[in-house]
Design goal:
The chain is an alpha+beta fold and 285 residues long. It is 41% helix and 16% strand. It has helices spanning 3-65, 108-117, 122-136, 149-152, 178-184, 206-213, 220-229; strands at 81-85, 88-96, 101-102, 188-189, 248-257, 261-271, 279-284. This is T2SS protein K first SAM-like domain-containing protein.
Length: 285
């Protein structure tokens, strides 16, 4: 008997077992990596389908608004349109920017009503109202509950001391939480007004009518607009003598792919009246 040979065979068995274990570990790692890569690719494919469907809904709305035939032209306002692209459910709404709250040109009472509609109350309402006005005004003197430059320094933000340049900028105001911002974003516009606080009530939502006019829940105009939004009456279209040129609208597109995947875009479009370049994209988010 060769003791040396026995020892070599004794070492060979544990080495083989260890090798099998390492191989199995590598195989499991490769399988897990493969599963992760597959899930990532599926997620990217779903996102691409959502983006393509949202863009298709946007372009269809732009085309529909520009149709010369009034019988086929999409009206501004009214109930959402539901479409489908490649298995993606798409909802499209068209909002007239003239029917929104001109946040850069309204007084304290309207700003306060806007924030209250979004759910702010008590001290939170006082602080947000003053902070919004401090952001817009041209001085560095904070109001009683407001905020100016030094109050934003820790966040690396410099308040505008002028009108908001984008709707997203409103989210930077001190105390503005995501829920309140999400509630007011669809209701405001940065389009300047020749007359401060004037809106086009024909295209204002029920919420904007209530905020701007101080109407109560039993107002005839408010009830009529609520019914229109629910599809119970025809949306107001542009009169024959009112061209689409130089009008700004927000086209809001929501794309859904199953219960968990979704995408929402809000695009501000200005129609020019020039057939060579019929529209401009003013904001795309």
């Amino acid at each position: 008997m060769n003791p040396k040979g026995t020892r070599q065979r004794g070492f060979a068995l544990p080495a083989a077992v260890a090798g099998i274990g390492i191989f199995a570990l590598v195989a499991v790692s490769i399988l897990e990596w493969g599963r992760g890569t597959t899930a990532l690719l599926r997620g990217q494919a779903s996102q691409a389908r959502l983006e393509a469907a949202a863009d298709a809904g946007l372009m269809l709305a732009i085309h529909g608004l520009g149709i010369d035939d009034r019988a086929r032209r999409w009206p501004i306002g009214g109930p959402p349109r539901t479409l489908g692209f490649d298995g993606v459910a798409v909802t499209v709404t068209v909002e007239d920017e003239r029917g929104k709250v001109p946040i850069n040109a309204v007084d304290t009472e309207i700003i306060r009503a806007l924030l209250a509609h979004a759910g702010a109350d008590g001290q939170k309402l006082d602080e947000l109202t003053d902070a919004v006005e401090d952001w817009i005004d041209e001085d560095d003197r904070p109001r009683l509950h407001g905020a100016e430059r030094e109050d934003y320094a820790a966040r690396g933000i410099v308040p505008r001391n002028g009108g908001f340049r984008s709707v997203d900028e409103i989210a930077l105001v001190r105390g503005m939480d995501p829920a309140i911002f999400a509630a007011i974003a669809p209701l405001v516009t940065l389009v300047p007004r020749a007359d401060v606080g004037v809106i086009d009530g024909r295209h204002a939502s029920a919420a904007v009518l209530e905020i701007m006019a101080g109407t109560g829940p039993d107002s005839i105009a408010l009830i009529g607009r609520q019914r229109e939004e629910q599809g119970q009456q025809v949306a107001i279209a542009l009169p024959d003598n009112e061209p689409l040129a130089l009008q700004l609208v927000t086209i809001r597109v929501s794309a859904r792919l199953g219960p968990d995947a979704g995408l929402t875009r809000a695009t501000i479009v200005e129609f020019t009246g020039d057939r060579r370049r019929p529209y401009w994209i003013r904001s795309y988010r």
